[in-house]
């Protein structure tokens, strides 16, 4: 018998590195819900993704995540709201932001548009470059355009997610494990 958790394991065919920069802070309702929509789309596609939560209470948790955010900000790759001159928008940036192989794909709406246009699967399987849209089979985050790179190489890997999901043999225990990348249990996902 296949457990419900096994049915939700990520599709290994999606080899591109996907990094979601999100907020789990519910007080920022619009950004939180948009972050959730981006994660939900990737979960429906069964795509493994890495999360950097910018909620000051919960993340970013590792030095690598902090360094990634600083590098993206310093490199001008994070999309920021229009500068209104006040202190609140000085360090702000739009959330969520989706990076595929280091290229900023936009937010949840842009990700959904890629899916609606039939492009997202080709980008996630590395059959199409997310930066220049050149169709080619790639095995790593590289393209002749030179605009791709992995942001969190070796961190939050698919193997780490498998181990987290599948640890333990007790079916009852497995049923309440957190879904990969979702931060919620199976029971919550069925509501």
Could you explain the architecture of this structure?
This protein has 191 residues and is of the alpha+beta class. It is built from 8 helices and 4 strands, in the order E-H-E-H-H-E-E-H-H-H-H-H. Helix 1 packs parallel to helix 4. The chain starts with 17 loop residues before the first strand and ends with a helix. The C terminus is likely disordered.
Helix and strand topology:
Elements: E1 18-22, H1 29-44, E2 50-53, H2 63-74, H3 87-90, E3 97-100, E4 103-106, H4 108-116, H5 120-124, H6 158-166, H7 171-175, H8 186-189
Question: Can you give keywords for this protein?
Answer:
alpha+beta, 4 strands, single chain, 8 helices, 191 residues
Shape verdict: globular
Q: What is the arithmetic mean of pLDDT?
A: 76
Q: What pattern of helices and strands is seen along the backbone?
A: EHEHHEEHHHHH
Report the count of strand segments. Answer: 4
Residue share in helices?
Answer: 25-40%
| C-alpha termini separation | 23 Å
Which oligomerization state do the chains in this entry correspond to?
single chain
CA gyration radius, whole angstroms:
17 Å
Approximate strand percentage: 5-15%
* Unreliable residue runs: 168-191
Short description:
The protein has eight helices and four strands; from the N terminus they run E-H-E-H-H-E-E-H-H-H-H-H.
């Amino acid at each position: 018998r296949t457990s419900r958790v096994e049915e939700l394991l990520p599709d290994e065919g999606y080899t591109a590195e996907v990094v979601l920069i999100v907020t789990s802070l519910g007080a920022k309702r619009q950004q939180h819900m948009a972050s959730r929509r981006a994660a939900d789309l990737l979960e429906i596609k069964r795509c493994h993704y890495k999360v950097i939560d910018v909620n000051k209470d919960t993340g970013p948790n590792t030095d690598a995540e902090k360094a990634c955010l600083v590098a993206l900000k310093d490199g001008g790759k994070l999309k920021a709201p229009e500068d209104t001159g006040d202190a609140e928008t000085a360090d702000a940036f739009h959330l969520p932001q989706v990076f595929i192989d280091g290229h900023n794909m936009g937010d949840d709406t842009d990700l959904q548009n890629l899916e609606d246009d039939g492009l997202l699967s080709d980008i996630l399987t590395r059959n199409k470059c997310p930066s220049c849209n050149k169709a080619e089979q790639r095995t790593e985050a590289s393209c002749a355009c030179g605009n791709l790179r992995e942001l969190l190489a070796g961190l939050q890997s698919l193997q780490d997610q498998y181990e987290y999901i599948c640890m333990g043999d007790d079916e009852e225990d497995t049923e309440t494990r957190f879904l990969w990348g979702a931060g919620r249990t199976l029971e919550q996902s069925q509501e």
